[in-house]
Amino acid sequence: GTSSYAEFEDRLKLLFEKIEISNGNIILYIKEIHLVFGTEISESIMYAEKFLKLMLTRDKWRLIIGTKTLNEYKQYIEKNSEFIKYFERILLQEPTVNDHEK
């Protein structure tokens, strides 16, 4: 976490700078990616969403993995055509007890 919006912004900029110079050697994993689109609108969320969309238009980004439930996907992500065109949806079924034993 961060203690201020400025600190959040600085960390986000540093992250994106590192990705830019990595030549596609970084996989960005965003747990609960739907939160980037905010269940509540805050300055930090709006900045993160805007910055992420900007960065996705650049060729240096190779792989971003975001996770969410199917309901969260439909509620927050699916409706955002600007964002969704950069991702491929992959549905994973919850493992069964039998799967765990393998």
UniProtKB/TrEMBL annotation:
What InterPro entries does the entry give? Answer: ClpA_ClpB, P-loop_NTPase
- MF terms per GO, please? ATP binding; ATP hydrolysis activity
GO biological process: one example: cellular response to heat
SUPFAM superfamilies in the cross-refs: P-loop containing nucleoside triphosphate hydrolases
Query: Nucleotide-binding among the record's keywords?
Result: yes
Q: What is this protein called?
A: Uncharacterized protein
Cellular-component GO terms for this entry: cytoplasm
Highest taxon above the source species: Eukaryota
Q: Which UniProt keywords apply?
A: ATP-binding, Nucleotide-binding
